[in-house]
Structure to design on (506 residues):
């Protein structure tokens, strides 16, 4: 077979000739243009290989993947990021602002972004930093759930059934999982940071359920074990007030709670535990009783201070005048606080020499300052008897001198009864006219007395010890009564007998 001139001289190409056309030799050949400006014949398989090498020179990225990118440019509205793909991505600058509105990235920074789409209408890849951060948080949440790790979140708001908590993404903290005890005021937790554990997560539905109770129970179990090893009656411990009730306060001793009853808070009067303590206060307490079977602990606080009743007789001897404050009124008297932890009782019978006091509130009010005399002290029974009337002059002693038996007076009827009439002799001092003493004549004619009217009468009996005054209208005109009275007066002397007693033995 002849060989053409071209085949004999392959390195030269005659001028003015047309480049040869590739001939089929059992293999497809693709006609291309060489970089030097003339066409070149290329094998299709080789071309595909070269194209593949070109594509692989870029990162092999998939939509929905979080990748790292480099910030190329930051403008007022957008941030341009290179993730190693054919084109750059553009993200709104709002996704890179901090709480104060300042941009937190600059050129050259490496950031995590989510590849949403590989190309939009303008040929740019679609990226999102905000979604990338959330995906990272979701990964961390799922890892925390699987590994039982602690997460920290801030309470955002109260919602139905519990609290909404921000742990990077919104999560739900049920009310039953907030504490080991029911929490009444959920609004008080708003804005607080809490340590919790993830107990349920569903990424597809976007649900995360948290529990603080589980974590507290685990922590308390460890503390409780340590506390019980050293707990004993008489031991002084430092605890935290966890809850306050009407009857006392529960103190956290470290994994186990003890009850500080209101009666063991102070030697003085305590109206409500909140007067002395508030939740989260740290206080010292002493263990009064510990039941290992039930793990119940009774605590005391006042026992850490000296009992004021041990020396009460030295400070409040009988007969001494003391000042105090009315702290309580009952039907039978008034309790007076002499000092914190020491109270005395003024019985209703010790409030007035002359008045019949039906209730202490007629004379005293809670909070009133009062001066009283110490009548008796019983440290063992923790009782002090006080008298209010004893600090005043006894008017009955003056009456014996002012109104000797036989004195004629004019008194106003205050009250009528079946057995007689009560007559006001002086303010708050009454005498009694028996019905047998109503008549004003020798014939025994009875007078019909009327309330609030005044009548002439005589004093026929006066006993300061009994605080009684006997009166008579009959004694004004009855001659025999007058003779009896003169006879009685002559024989009275210094004795304590009355004219009525004299008439009885006549």
């Amino acid at each position: 077979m002849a060989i053409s001139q071209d085949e004999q001289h392959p390195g030269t190409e005659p001028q003015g000739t047309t480049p040869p056309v590739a001939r089929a030799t059992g293999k497809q050949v693709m006609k291309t243009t060489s970089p030097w400006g003339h066409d070149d014949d290329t094998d299709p398989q080789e071309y595909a290989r070269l194209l593949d090498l070109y594509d692989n020179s870029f990162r092999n990225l998939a939509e929905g993947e979080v990748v790292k990118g480099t910030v190329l440019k930051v403008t007022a509205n957008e941030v341009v990021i290179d993730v190693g793909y054919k084109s750059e991505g553009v993200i709104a600058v709002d996704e890179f602002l901090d709480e104060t509105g300042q941009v937190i990235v600059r050129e050259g920074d490496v950031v995590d972004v989510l590849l949403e789409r590989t190309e939009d209408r303008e040929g740019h890849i679609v990226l999102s930093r905000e979604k990338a951060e959330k995906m990272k948080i979701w990964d961390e949440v799922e890892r925390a759930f699987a590994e039982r790790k602690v997460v920290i979140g801030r309470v955002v708001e109260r919602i139905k059934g519990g609290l909404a908590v921000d742990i990077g993404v919104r999560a739900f903290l049920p009310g039953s999982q907030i504490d080991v005890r029911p929490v009444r005021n959920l609004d008080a937790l708003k804005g607080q940071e809490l340590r919790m554990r993830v107990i349920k997560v569903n990424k597809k539905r976007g649900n995360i359920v948290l529990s603080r109770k589980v974590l507290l129970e685990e922590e308390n179990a460890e503390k409780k074990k340590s506390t019980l090893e050293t707990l004993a009656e008489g031991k002084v411990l430092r605890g935290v007030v966890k809850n306050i009730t009407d009857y006392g306060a529960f103190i956290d001793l470290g994994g186990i709670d003890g009850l500080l009853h209101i009666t063991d808070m102070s030697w003085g009067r305590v109206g409500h535990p909140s007067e002395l303590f508030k939740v989260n206060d740290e206080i010292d307490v002493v263990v009064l009783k510990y039941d290992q079977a039930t793990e119940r602990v009774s605590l005391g606080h006042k026992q850490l201070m000296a009992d004021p009743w041990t020396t009460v007789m030295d400070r409040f001897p009988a007969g001494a005048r003391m000042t105090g404050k009315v702290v309580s009124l009952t039907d039978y008297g008034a309790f007076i606080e002499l000092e914190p932890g020491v109270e005395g009782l003024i019985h209703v019978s010790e409030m007035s020499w002359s008045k019949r006091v039906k209730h202490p509130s007629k004379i005293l009010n809670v909070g009133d300052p009062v001066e009283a005399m110490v009548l008796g002290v019983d440290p063992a029974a923790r009782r002090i008897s006080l008298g209010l009337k004893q600090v005043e002059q006894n008017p009955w002693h003056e009456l014996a001198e002012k109104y000797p038996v036989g004195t004629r007076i004019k008194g106003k009827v205050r009250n009528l009864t079946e057995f007689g009439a009560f007559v006001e002799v002086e303010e708050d001092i009454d005498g009694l006219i028996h019905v047998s003493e109503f008549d004003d004549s020798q014939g025994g004619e009875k007078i019909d007395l009327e309330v609030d009217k005044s009548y002439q009468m005589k004093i026929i009996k006066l006993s300061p010890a009994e605080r009684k005054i006997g009166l008579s209208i009959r004694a004004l005109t009855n001659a025999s009564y007058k003779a009896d009275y003169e006879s009685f007066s002559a024989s009275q002397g210094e004795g304590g007998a009355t004219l009525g007693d004299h008439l009885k033995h006549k």
Summary: The chain has eight helices and 27 strands. Confidence is low (pLDDT under 50) at residues 1-38, 492-497, 502-506. The two ends are 190 Å apart (CA to CA).
